[in-house]
Amino acid sequence: MAENLIIDGTSKTDIYESLLPQIKSLISGEDNLIANLANTSAALKTAFNFFWVGFYLVDGDELVLGPFQGPIACTRIKKGRGVCGTAWQKEEAQVVPDVDAFPGHIACSSLSRSEIVIPLFKGEQIYGVLDIDSEHLNTFDATDLKYLEELCTYL
User: Fold this and answer.
1) Cβ count within 10 A of residue 104
2) Of 37, 42, 36, 2, which is closest to residue 22 (Cα–Cα)?
3) Which of 30, 60, 61, 149 is 20 to 30 A from 91 (CA-CA)?
């Protein structure tokens, strides 16, 4: 695997279509979940320069902080709390254009303005979530949802 990402295009779709095969190649053949989550968060941060990109993993009745890129973050999140806990509880992705308008939002950073959270499934069971924050409102849309959900099937 190459040590550098090659990002082609300027549109969000172009970037995802360039990035996803590289991430798939990067993590294929590696069985260690932490290594794969770490490289995936680094690749997403590099390609899009999102404010925060990372993973939370299910540990009993909480999500526990996993590999991430960005400023320090909340360490534990209860099921049903905040955007991540809601995605876990509802077992569906959450696209939040304005986190301040999301009931029960957990402000790990006051700089976060919009967020997308994608559940990670092993069979029917959720084992974690991909969480991405932006310092801008309305950053995430159907394009992000489509490609990030696809990406999460690789993990």
Assistant:
1) 10
2) 2
3) 30
Per-residue CA distances from 112 to 17, 97, 132, 152, 153 (Å):
26, 11, 10, 22, 26
Q: What is the pLDDT of residues 35-52, one digit of tens each?
A: 999 999 999 999 999 999
Q: Kindly state which CATH superfamily the domain 12-154 is placed in.
A: GAF domain (3.30.450.40)
Q: Where are the domains of the chain?
A: 12-154
* Token representation of residue 11: 């549109």
Check residue 2 and give its pLDDT: 54
Q: Which helix (H) or strand (E) holds 148?
A: helix 142-154
Token readout for 9 is: 């295009």
Strand residue runs (E) in 5-135: 52-59, 62-69, 76-78, 94-96, 114-122, 125-134
